[in-house]
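User: New here, please read:
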Amino acid sequence: MKAVVFDANVAKYIRTLLLGKISKKFFYNRFSCIALKDIPEPDLPSENYVKIKTTYAGICGSDLNLIFLHDSPSTSPFASFPFVIGHENLGVIVEKGKAVSEFEIGDRVIVDPVLDCDARELPRCSSCQEEEFSTCLNITEGKLSPGTIMGACSTTGGSWGEYFVAHKSQVIKVPDTVKDQEAILVDPLASALHPVMRNFPRDSEKVLVYGAGIIGLLVIWSLRKLGSSADITAIAKYDFQADLAIEFGANRVVKPKEGYLDELAKIAGAKVFQPMIGDKVLLGGFDKVFDCVGSRKTIRDGMWLTKQRGSYILVGLASVVESLDLTPIWFKELNVKGAYCYSTENINEYRMSTYQLALSLIQQHGIPYEKLITHYFKLEDYQKAIEVASSKGSEKSIKVVFKFL
């Protein structure tokens, strides 16, 4: 089968980093850590697994971080090389183990990519016992090679390949009423819902969503679809992102330009001060800040834009951040929270997987896929797809997907 494979060793990693300083294309050309290859189809690890033929696969921001080597090397023990990239998925079951009775050959399905204790066929760890699957403690053990999610594990394959395998506990059948283009957006919607559900604002609160890529836009969209009347300010770099942020329910949009901290301070009712050295700081701010970027600037400004004892939620995939001043954490007594992947959410008195919640919201409201999916590519054109996905301003890209049919 054809698949885009990530294979890194120390020499290749350093070489790619150095060449990448010349041109970003060195991160995804023939000298890089990724390549389109012909590899064997993955085998079923046990009779509790199914094999899925991919029909759609999305390019996630985390995939781009991987390709451009922005991820911290500290996470390398929690992956197994080489692996097929991709966790945003939609496909059809083509093979199933003898212990799988819940699904049939031909079922159209999505797969929650988290490789927890259930997927590894181990007794549940303390996190998995609490249904907090994204913080599973056994991500290097059991039936599978190391990997936090599908798309970082050599055993399962990934959605940037023609076939991948999944444990029956991960699989969700897609209702006939949900279109393919809607189903492939379940993963980014779940990534937005997880921080939203864990930090749902009161209607009286002021919320800042920093970043208007796919996750930031879906944070806004999900807040409104879940009934929030909170005052939402979005920070969007590009006009096309700003337009969608307003359409999805933001009260206003601010551009991250010179003097934007003063503009945001007025919105939040905060006071701005100029230190003797360095950038401006704030007293007061927003009740909740969802940082959907995770860069040095957004983390620094995002924490200062959070009010005293407010919540700063890091949704974007931050890695090694040099020279970051952590003063606002203690000075403002911030609640600093991370949001990794998806898990299980509280819905009134019920518990539901974030993936299932995302699918249910799409069933109930639909999702404007025609505005969110901006580009489609064949897998063979993966280099062009990466180019487009990483050039949001010039290409006006939001979600870029591979179409296998």
Summary: The longest strand covers residues 49-58. The two ends are 14 Å apart (CA to CA). The chain has a mean pLDDT of 96. Residues 285 and 306 are 5 Å apart (CA to CA).
